[in-house]
């Protein structure tokens, strides 16, 4: 499965780079669906492949803007934390580190100001429990 995931990631990344306009937007939406499924339901090896090879091709590349991508990534982090296993927490941390520029703005973790989301705090807490 990991080999197939790598192949898909490489092919999708290449296709995304070669498309523009509405064709690229439609393809990007389809790739997000595949990435979302793999990140939420796949095993740790699949998640790592998607984080390393596929997400850099789609995060901050669409017309929806970074907030929409941050919301999608946050939902993945939330799902992984709810599953609660060591691999899931490690992958949630990896995802958060890889895309921290997008997520920190959404989570308002810069100062833990009022209105900040607790997801970032939960992630740090669970990461510390497993370290």
What can be said about this structure in brief?
The protein is an all-alpha fold and 131 residues long. 80% of the residues lie in helices and 0% in strands.
Architecture overview:
The chain is an all-alpha fold. The radius of gyration is 15 Å and the shape is globular. It contains seven helices and no strands. The model has no long low-confidence stretch (mean pLDDT 85).
List the helices and strands and how they pair.
Elements: H1 2-18, H2 21-41, H3 44-58, H4 66-83, H5 86-98, H6 100-107, H7 118-130
Number of helices: 7
* Mean pLDDT across every amino acid position: 85
Helix content: over 70%
Q: How much strand?
A: under 5%
Number of β-strand runs: 0
The ordered string of helix (H) and strand (E) elements is HHHHHHH
Radius of gyration: 15 Å
Sheet having the most strands: none
Shape designation: globular
Structure class: mainly alpha
Distance between the termini: 29 Å
Summarize this structure as a short list of keywords or feature phrases.
single chain, 131 residues, mainly alpha, 80% helix, globular
């Amino acid at each position: 499965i990991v080999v197939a995931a790598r192949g898909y990631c490489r092919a999708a990344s290449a296709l995304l780079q070669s498309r523009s306009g509405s064709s690229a937007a439609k393809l990007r939406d389809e790739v997000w669906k595949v990435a979302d499924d793999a990140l939420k339901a796949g095993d740790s090896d699949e998640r790592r492949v998607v984080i390393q090879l596929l997400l850099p091709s789609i995060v901050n590349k669409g017309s929806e803007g970074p907030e929409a991508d941050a919301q999608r990534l946050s939902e993945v982090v939330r799902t992984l934390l709810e599953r609660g296993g060591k691999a899931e927490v490690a992958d949630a941390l990896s995802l958060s580190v890889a895309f921290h520029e997008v997520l920190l703005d959404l989570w308002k973790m810069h100062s833990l100001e009022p209105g900040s989301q607790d997801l970032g705090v939960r992630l740090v807490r669970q990461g510390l429990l497993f370290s």
